[in-house]
Structure formats: C-alpha cells, structure tokens
Amino acid sequence: MAFRLNREVEDLFITKILEKRELHHLDREFMLGKISLYCEKNQKACRKFAETPLTRIKKAKFAEDLVRFVRKEAHVCYGMYLTKTIVKAPQIVHDLEKLAKQSAVHVVNKDKLSFLHHQLLLLHLSTQERLHLYPQVYHDLFAITGRPRKIFDLGCGFNGISLFYSHLTDLVYTGCEFNQKDVDLLNQYFRAIKKISTIDGKAVKIDLIKHPEAVAQHSADVVFAYKIFDLFPSTVVETILKNLQCKWIIASFPIKNLNRRLMHAPRRAGFQKMMRRLGYTYKTLTYDTELFYIFEQHQRD
Questions:
Q1: Which pTM value belongs to this model?
Q2: Which of these, 237, 258, 236, 254, lies nearest to 291 by C-alpha position?
Q3: Are residues 129 and 258 in contact, defined by beta-carbon separation less than 8 angstroms?
Q4: Of 7, 146, 193, 219, which sits with the fewest C-beta atoms within 10 Å of its C-beta?
Q5: 3-state secondary structure of 152
Q6: Percentage with pLDDT > 90 across the chain
Q7: What's the CA gap between 79 and 18, in Å, rounded?
C-alpha cells in the first residue's frame, strides 16, 4: 500500500521542485502523482518523511532524492521543451489582451501583434525551433490534407499560438495538454485574440497516458501529434490512434538528438508499421530538425 505524505510535507516538496525555473508552470496534480509514484517505490524513505521534523527534511539527502526523481520525470515529458523564460508567458498574453482591446477603437497594430506572437513562441523549445519554418510547414502540410476546418492537437504545448502563421480562417481548434496551468494560459490567449482572429480556439486538460481513449470525444479534419509519440508506450500510442475521430493525422518526430546531432535512423519503422496495420497510408516531409508523417485514414478493421 502506498504511503501518503501529509499536506505540509507535500507543499515543501512542491516548492522545492518548482525552484527549477523551467518547471515553473508544472501542474500540482502531476507533481503529486510523481511524488506518490516515488513513495510506492521507496516506502522506507517516505516513512522517514513522517518521522522527521520539517526543518530537517529540507536539508536531508533522502528528500533531495525525491525532488530529483520528480524533476527527472517532469523533464522527460514536459521540462525538456520549456525555456527558463517561460515565466514571461502570462505577461505577454496580458499584452495581447491589451492590444486586442485597443483594436476595438483603432486598427490593430500588426507589427506589435506579430512581435508578441513571436515572443510567446520563443518560450517553448519546440515552437522556437519551428519559428522560422511555420509559414512553409503549414503551406506544405495543408497542400496535402487540404485546408482544415477543425484541428485537434495532442500534447499541444504552445503550438496553437503558431496558427497565427497558418493563414487559416474560420477554424475551430482544440488543443489538449496534461498541465492545467498551460491549459489556463492557452485559454487566456484564445480569449485575448478572439476579437482580432477568426480562429475559435480552446484548450482542454487530458492526460493522454492515463486516458488515451479520451481523444474519441474530439472529432476533427486533422489531428496534430507533434513530438509526443516517442514519449508514450506503444500500447498508449495505438489506443490513441484507434480512438481518433479524423481523416488525417500529422505526427512529427525529432531528427536530431539532445546534442543537436542528426540521428542515424530518424524514421520510426515501428510507428510506420503500426499505422499501416491500422489502415493508414502516409507521406513524409523533412525539415531542419523534424520529420513529419502525414497519414490519411482509409479503412480500419
């Protein structure tokens, strides 16, 4: 049976975990889940937390082990994509809100609008490295799929903000994230641009590892799955794919490692085999740091 820490000790660990700036936006529920996982694996250490005064826990080595564990888990599925300047995001979105309100009286300042979008996309490493490519990437992708009216974005990060460069109009966009703070920030962004954009966007909270079947609730013309399938067990990926309600899936994978060197075998043979088995045909597009698979669903058994 898992050992549960008291609220005071949990708060102490959450404060220490969040001292790492790129994890500033991390969701409390996620951290508690990882703390619980650590305690399941290290019940002896967790019993020490109940027996040790709070002032001593702060400096204890066994406490640092828990903090490192949660940070490592967070880095794999979240922190590796964030910059230390992520803390600027709320202020930039607030500046967008002010700009949108001014547009009700004056013509929107397009240069400032572009600048603020650029600044937001710099805060997330995935969108940062695509920043110079977005107009071309969207042009190439939609030349294959056609211009979508509905997009569902898995593990979206800040990708929905990049639709500013897509030239799409009258679009319904739904992005899903597991981190509540990111969901709230994205919804604040979409509310902010509503007066100056024809994109009807929103973000929803879904933990795709725990609830992969939940994707069935969101139908779309095109589903984005950028740089996420490498992070999931193959059983979770297959469950997601079997439950998607769409015609097209655009999945991307990095082609460079963390040292920025090209991978020897960037194509995902196992993923390709799975998609063919599920009734999809595919094309590929390759850019500086990313490989895109564009899958069309014909028939699934």
A1: 0.82
A2: 254
A3: no
A4: 7
A5: strand
A6: 48
A7: 11
